[in-house]
Amino acid sequence: VFQKWVNREISNFDYLIQLNTMAGRTYNDLAQYPVFPWILRDYTSEELDLNNPAVFRDLSKPIGVVNEKNAKTVKERYENFEDPLGMIDKFHYGTHYSNAAGVMHYLIRVEPFTTLHIQLQSGRFDCADRQFHSIPATWQALMDNPNDVKELIPEFFYFPEFLENQNGFNLGQLQMSKEVVNDVVLPKWAHSPEDFIYKHRKALESEYVSAHLHEWIDLIFGYKQRGPAAVEALNVFY
């Protein structure tokens, strides 16, 4: 598979799906759901220019420190952590880049995930401000908060329906703006959910991502997952 990918015989999308499968990740287990990278950092421009490297996320860094400002906090957490019982090893992040709650968070508008989310929240929707309501806002929250380290799920590259509230669920309204949470708010450069998926998939297969994807793979599936390489890369998880 690796050789095929290097020779550009399979797409980045297919390669990531196969890596996830080999790592034991599967759509049948929310706790081991396939994980995909955030690949863009420009969610505000009117047009998305895939020839401009500045629109892409730095794939060599864990999502928690893509914003340089967070690196100091993350380093300090690792260095100052001491488990009195000596059971828990030092870590940079107390949550994970992929977990069941995160998958339900993204897929809240489609069943069976809606029902699973409601069960998780003891019989009702979580408060609107914590819902997945906007792609630009989700990215901004990641940049501002080193405790939020959710990567993406494969659906961001092929499944426009999850961005629409086709079932008309009452997801509440945001506290500050009183905005009703309905369809997911898209980046300015996307004119519809389909257009978002088309451009996002195109970004995944772009020259920039093809040249840098291996850096992210090292963090999630490769040698930077644990040991000294992980510590150095600020990539140690609880």
Rg over alpha carbons = 18 Å
CATH topology heading: Neurobeachin, Chain: A, domain 1
pLDDT averaged over residues: 95
Parts with pLDDT < 50 across at least 5 consecutive residues: none
Tally of contiguous helical segments: 9
CATH secondary-structure class? Mainly Alpha
Helix content: 25-40%
How far apart the termini lie comes to: 31 Å
Q: What's the shape? A: globular
Structural class, from secondary structure content?
mainly alpha
Largest sheet entry: none
Number of domains: 1
H-E order = HHHHHHHHH
Look at the structure and name the CATH superfamily: BEACH domain
The total count of strands amounts to 0
Percentage of residues in DSSP E strands? under 5%
The CATH architecture classification is: Orthogonal Bundle
GO molecular function: protein kinase binding
InterPro entries: BEACH_dom, BEACH_dom_sf, BEACH_Domain
Domain BEACH: 1-238
Pfam families: Beach
